[in-house]
Design goal:
Elements lengths: L3 H29 L7 H36 L9 H24 L1 E4 L2 E2 L2 E2 L5 E4 L2 H47 L8 H42 L5 H39 L2
Antiparallel strand pairs: 1-4, 2-3
Helix pairs in contact: 1-2, 1-3, 1-6, 2-3, 2-4, 4-5, 5-6
Membrane topology: Multi-pass membrane protein
InterPro entries: GPCR_Rhodpsn, GPCR_Rhodpsn_7TM, NeuromedU_rcpt
Organism: Lottia gigantea (Giant owl limpet)
Length: 275
Amino acid sequence: MHTPTNYYLFNLAISDLLMLILGLPQEIYSLWSAYPFLLGETICRLRLLAAEASTYTSILTITAFTVERYNAICYNPMRANNSNLSRVIRVIIAIWLFSVLCSIPVGLQFGIVYIKANNVPILESAQCNTINEAEAKIVFQVSTFLFFMFPMAVIAILYFMIALAIRRSVLIRSGSDSSNESQTVVDPELRITQQTQVRQSVLKMLVAVVVAFFVCWAPFHAQRLLVVYVEDWTLTLILVHDCLYYVSGVLYYISTTINPILYSIMSVKFRQAFR
């Protein structure tokens, strides 16, 4: 059980669980009572900071898991489950520290915002929202690059390399089985067929992982960037924003449930492909 894969999966499960605990109750409550926000500015910022940190941790854990699988499969398949565990623990600790540090600027962009009538704040309109659009624009841009575009590129490229490695591995083993046909009681064609099926299953899983990552997080960052970039809101843009807001909210929490399942299944299929 003490393998790099299990360590990363456990850390992913913790970060995803925190995303649910820290975000979902407030989201559900806001559906019934959007105004006013009664918990104060400190809780407003801490809630966003904690949710952001757990989100970043989840994404970076997925990226680190991908790098770990790439190194194990493409450079040393025989030691795929025997990597230095102390190094993995250090990576996980670094992920949490980096995530918390990067979430602080995001948390500072939020505060209690009021709708004003005749330049007088309406207390019942209190809402936890961005308080400095200029700074929020920069922070959200950096966040989108560091925690969506860059991880997406890394994951897509490394899984493509892993797919090529799996394909080469099966072809090499297929040739070896064919050359040893007279020395084995196992039908080599049957073995080749089984290996091909396993390979195709793994390749489908790799595609599913990349697609799932993009689908779950693209609307979230698109909605954020839409808010900070759009100045003249038309009816169409408002409808697009509202659609992205609810879709990204649902996918945000769906990702917390499918991540551990998806990556657990994938790690099993990796082991099958490299038997």
